[in-house]
């Protein structure tokens, strides 16, 4: 009887151990599947994020290229305006010099005219008669 009781106790203990083993196995399997699902979801999320970042980068690079092109065009337009203004400034300077030189010639011409008029008058000649 004692031996049977011990066998029965051992069988019950074995049954509990087997159940514990099954419970642990089920729990670990469940944890593994949960972790696998979470990691799969995280990978998908990160892949979507990478994809979005690539799109953003492509748009940013396109905008940068466009901005560089516009700035280059603006710079060329400004260079043309500057060259035009320099040309106008040079023309104004030359015009001013020509005007000053003309005034000098007119003054000198008037002086010479008056001098020759006086010389003709000394000889009794009228400059208007000539």
TrEMBL record:
This protein's name: Dynein regulatory complex protein 12
InterPro entries per the UniProt record, alphabetical: DRC12-like (IPR033585)
Subunit structure: Component of the nexin-dynein regulatory complex (N-DRC).
Function statement: Component of the nexin-dynein regulatory complex (N-DRC), a key regulator of ciliary/flagellar motility which maintains the alignment and integrity of the distal axoneme and regulates microtubule sliding in motile axonemes.
Compartments where found: Cytoplasm, Cytoskeleton, Flagellum axoneme
Phylogenetic classification of the source organism: Eukaryota, Metazoa, Chordata, Craniata, Vertebrata
Family of this protein: Belongs to the DRC12 family.
Coiled-coil spans in chain: 29-79
Keywords of this entry: Cell projection, Cilium, Coiled coil, Cytoplasm, Cytoskeleton, Flagellum
């Amino acid at each position: 009887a004692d031996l049977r009781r011990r066998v029965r106790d051992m069988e019950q203990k074995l049954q509990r151990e087997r159940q514990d083993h099954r419970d642990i196995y089920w729990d670990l399997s469940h944890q593994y599947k949960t972790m696998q699902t979470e990691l799969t979801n995280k990978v998908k999320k990160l892949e979507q994020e990478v994809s979005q970042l690539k799109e953003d980068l492509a748009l940013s690079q396109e905008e940068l290229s466009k901005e560089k092109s516009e700035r280059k065009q603006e710079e060329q337009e400004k260079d043309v305006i500057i060259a035009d203004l320099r040309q106008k400034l040079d023309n104004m300077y030359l015009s001013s010099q020509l005007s000053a030189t003309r005034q000098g010639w007119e003054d000198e011409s008037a002086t010479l005219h008056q001098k020759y008029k006086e010389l003709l008058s000394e000889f009794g000649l009228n400059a208007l008669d000539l």
